[in-house]
Amino acid sequence: MDGRMAIAGVLLCVLMVIPLVQSSCFPALFNFGDSTSDTGGIHAAFPNATPAEFLPYGETYFGKAGVRYSDGRLLIDFVATALGLKFLDPYLQSVTSNFAQGANFATAGATVRSITYLSPFNLGVQIKQWQEFYINTINTLSVDPGNSRLPQPSYFTDGLYTIALGGNDFTFGYTKGQTPLQIRSYLPLVVTGITDAIRGIYAYAGRNFLVWDIEPQGCLPYTLTLIPHTPADLDANGCLRDYNDNSVYFNGLLQTALQDLQAELTDASIVMLSTYDLKTDFFANATANGFQFVTTACCGVPSAYNYNTQVNCGSSGVVNGITLTAVTCPDPSVYTIWDGVHNTEAANRYIAQQIFGGKYLRPAWPKLADNCFEFRSQLPLPSALSSFVLPFRCFQNSSTSDKHTDASFLATPRTLKRNRGADIQLRGVDDVLPVCSDHVHKQHQHALVDLREGTILSNNCWRIS
């Protein structure tokens, strides 16, 4: 199906609050990161120089190169969508950018520490860029309060700040041939860089922080290919035990530091997302969730892990006198890893669902897990409107099970009030809502809902699940 994930079962549609009113508990999203959340920053800085600018990157969702290191959407794209926000434009993009709902400061190759590696845009630089963005926005709005392409001043305080990098600080050591113990020696500096970044944002405005920890790096095809090993070095998921232990060590330092910082900045919310625990559980239960390949890349040179350090996804090269070509698997949706380092869109979707479920937030954060994704008790409508365009949120209903695979995206029971005073009850998975006859991959496809009758007037809904 042109690389798109076929959906088994029935697609049901659940109403999602539209941008007609500000429904998100976070009105804006500001992201700091590396290639796992870069939506075009490195491309803007160094055009025509990075793999994500070319197919097969982006093929599953965008149908063209999406300047993202995946076959489709990134985790940050799913987070933005779930918050009711548009995809984030990169801060470095000078044309067509709209920052009304936030900005993305992530660039591929970024590290936390100020080191010369793959990108000059380390976390400290990204924070300075955000501070400059904040100052310029406030100054601009003071003389042009109607500017619709910049976030409102309150959004800087009420918005969500995500910090998702640190992995390249590990891989820097790997490429230098450092042992796990040698890499551990500088990990406290990485933690300090992250806490300093939070302080730098807090000093200006930010109060809501979600910090990614480090995933199990011993499971990446990149690491498994780069590091010589024997079967005895692998855990039950086929991952390098010592390198995963390094992730655990770092995450312990990070969690303690964030807890200390929370005690210091009492009016802030500082939460860690345990991507390590999330992915460990994910890999252990991959088959049950529809994934067949955990440590093998979808796009790469055919080999044990479908990865070659000298031939990237989408390219060919001569290695030891032999021409090698990276090929793409027929169905990325059954792979967790796209190119040896980055997730497939299918994996990003699954991980996003787990974030919203709340299980992997440290500590628990009801504001994110319970409130942001519910329908509001009332949806005020302009008095002149009896029908209008609403986006839909779709989920998959298995024909063999009552369990909905995307249940963490769904609303709890709420009442949607119309301007005539009558009610439309939305009961999440228990409500018999109109069935979508088809699904599409267009980000802005909408279905028209007549609130007087509660019926769908168009025949499709757009997919975010």
Describe the structure.
The protein folds into two domains: 1-22 and 379-465, no CATH class; 24-371, 3-Layer(aba) Sandwich (Rossmann fold), CATH 3.40.50.1110. It contains twelve helices and 21 strands. It has helices at residues 41-45, 75-82, 123-143, 153-158, 167-175, 180-184, 187-202, 221-226, 241-264, 275-284, 345-357, 366-371; strands spanning 10-15, 29-33, 102-104, 160-164, 208-212, 269-273, 293-297, 299-300, 316-319, 322-325, 327-328, 335-337, 361-362, 387-390, 392-397, 414-417, 423-426, 439-440, 447-450, 455-456, 461-462. α2 crosses α11, α3 (123-143) runs parallel beside α7 (187-202) and α7 packs parallel to α9 (241-264). It is globular and about 60 Å long.
Percent helix range: 25-40%
| Overall geometry | globular
Q: Provide the β-strand percentage band.
A: 15-25%
CATH class of the largest domain: Alpha Beta
CATH architecture of the largest domain: 3-Layer(aba) Sandwich
